[in-house]
Structure formats: structure tokens, C-alpha cells
Design goal:
209 residues; alpha/beta; eight-stranded mixed β-sheet; 7 helices; 8 strands; globular
């Protein structure tokens, strides 16, 4: 797994790297554009919403929402990524923060219509993912949505199949979402809908019960 310094160094070429993987329909970014577009359309169903982007990177998705009048708060642990995103969204509230430490104080007390996260939460272990998602309830509006686009699979069998096809360059330090597992862990408090977009990616729509 890349550390903060690694992401700082990768920042200028990150979007290009993603594009090559996406265009080749290859792990890990196959379906990237459609995944971001699915989340974009969900947010755009509501005008001028308040959005928190967790792991906003260079602001590819958030800046499109920002340009359409949505209020953007963002978190990323790479100062270089934030610098690039800030150039696209000068009035956004962006915080340098490592989500392995939970949520930053700057967002606590806020209430968001949408909390979005793309290609970020796979850096957390399975249990840390579940704990982190549960923390989001305190900053989500009553009818709000958590939208997660990431490397993910409907079942463990689908994940295992992807691993077999890509094991020569599989990232063993990343922990990928499995819908059947996550839905079971969250079912007491949340409704979890999953849309498989590509062979290795999809979108979760999580709402309070």
C-alpha cells in the first residue's frame, strides 16, 4: 500500500494511470468512469446539496458537482492531491486527514445530504471499513445517502475469480468490498444496495433504516 508520500508523488500522474487501466477494462480500475458517473447522477438528483467526499484525490468527481452548485467538503491524506483539487474548487472546504484515524473534527457536527467515497475505503481492513461506515451516521442527514464506488464484488466467489485472473499484480495490502459480507454486517441499521458495474468494481448505496 502506498503511504502518504507515495500518493503525493503519484498525484500528478494518478488520473492518467487510472485512465489506462479503465480503458483496458483491467483490474483495478475497470468501470471507473461509469462508477463515478453513477455516483454523480445520484447526487445530481438533488439541487445544491451538501456533499462530503472522503478520499477526494484530485477532485475528479467532486469538481463536477462543485461546478453544478453543490457544496463540497473533502478529505484526503495527500497534501499534493488536495492542492490539485483546491485549484479546481477554490471555495471547497478540504482537509488533509488520514481516515484510518476516523473522521476529522472539521466535519463533526455537520450534516450531509451525500457522503461519497471512490477508490479509498479499500485501504481499510474489513472491520475498519464497517466501523468507519457506521461512524458516518452521525454526520448524515435523515434521508441522506452514503455512496461508495470502489473495487468490489457481489460475492466472495467473484472476488476469488478476479484474484485468479490478476494474481501476478494483485495488491495484497488492499481489502476489497464484498456485497454479501457488507450487507450482513450493516443490516441491523442500514439498507445496502449494490450495483455491479464492471468485473472488479461497483457502487454501494447505503441509507439509514
Amino acid at each position: 500500500m502506498l503511504n502518504k508520500q507515495g500518493f503525493d508523488l503519484w498525484a500528478n500522474d494518478y488520473d492518467k494511470t487510472v485512465q489506462i487501466s479503465e480503458e483496458n477494462n483491467a483490474y483495478p480500475f475497470a468501470g471507473y468512469k461509469e462508477i463515478l458517473n453513477t455516483i454523480y447522477n445520484e447526487v445530481m438528483s438533488q439541487k445544491e446539496s451538501k456533499v462530503l467526499d472522503i478520499g477526494l484525490g484530485t477532485g475528479v468527481l467532486a469538481s463536477k458537482l462543485y461546478d453544478h452548485g453543490h457544496q463540497i467538503d473533502g478529505i484526503d491524506f495527500s497534501s499534493k492531491m488536495i492542492e490539485i483539487a483546491k485549484g479546481k474548487m477554490p471555495d471547497a472546504n478540504l482537509v488533509e486527514w488520514d481516515i484510518s484515524n476516523g473522521l476529522p473534527s472539521e466535519v463533526m457536527g455537520n450534516k450531509y445530504d451525500f457522503i461519497i467515497s471512490t477508490y479509498t475505503l479499500h485501504h481499510l481492513s474489513y472491520q475498519d471499513k464497517v466501523s468507519f461506515i457506521k461512524q458516518l451516521e452521525s454526520i448524515l442527514k435523515e434521508n441522506g445517502k452514503v455512496l461508495i464506488g470502489d473495487i468490489s464484488f457481489e460475492t466472495h466467489a467473484a472476488l476469488d475469480s478476479c484474484y485468479e485472473d490478476n494474481k501476478d499484480y494483485w495488491d495484497e495490502d488492499e481489502y476489497y468490498f464484498v456485497y454479501e459480507e457488507l450487507a450482513l454486517s450493516l443490516e441491523a441499521d442500514y439498507n445496502v444496495v449494490y450495483k455491479q458495474i464492471s468485473h472488479c468494481g461497483g457502487v454501494f448505496i447505503i441509507t439509514n433504516k
